[in-house]
Amino acid sequence: MRLLVLFAAALFLTAANAQAQVYAPYDGYDEYDGYGYDDPYSPYPPPPCCETEPGYREPLQERREPSTLTGRGTIVIATLEHTLIYTTASGEQFAYPIAVGREGKQWYGSTRVVSKRMHPEWRPTASMRLKNPRLPPVVKAGPANPLGTRAIYLADGLLRIHGTNDPSSIGTNASSGCFRMYREDVEELYDMVHPGTRVIVQR
What we know:
- Helices cover 17% and strands 24% of the residues.
- It is built from three helices and nine strands; from the N terminus they run αββββαββββαβ.
- The N and C termini lie far apart (70 Å).
- The protein has helices at 2-19, 126-131, 183-192; strands at 74-78, 83-87, 93-101, 109-118, 150-154, 159-162, 173-175, 179-181, 198-202.
- It is an alpha/beta fold.
- Strand 2 and strand 3 form a beta hairpin.
- An eight-stranded mixed barrel has the order 1-2-3-8-6-5-4-9.
- The model is unreliable at 12-61 (pLDDT under 50).
- It is globular.
């Protein structure tokens, strides 16, 4: 009888583990498919809290010296340098390493911050789920979420500056257009910028 109980318990644990999902960075999660992936004006509020897994640590990050003169209260993204520079209203500058879009997925021009969200949910579009049927309708906030702990929406919601669950991609051409940052960096930037902040994306 004891062997039967142990066998049943082992079978249950195996089935539970098989259903557990960790969503690796999806190659194409930030396609410009409209608001469906994570509508900043969605009726679904973010979870009340979100803590990272115990023992989770971001890798050490390299702060860079600003290399671009910009207007005050402006974000400049230097694509070739994989660097985001924010100049505050008082003239102080903050420079952060970022991941940018892959070749053919990069956008250049001037836009603005339209909204922000803490602990964003990720909502894959129908086309993403068609390409990858294993994707769920919603990935709640947490360490498995490809958007990280903060999202700053640009270009009327079609582009974002956000965190990532793949910090190794920072400093590379990795996304489908959005700009990824280390967790500590995006949280710092999130607290400083507000809707209406000008954003200039340069080569």
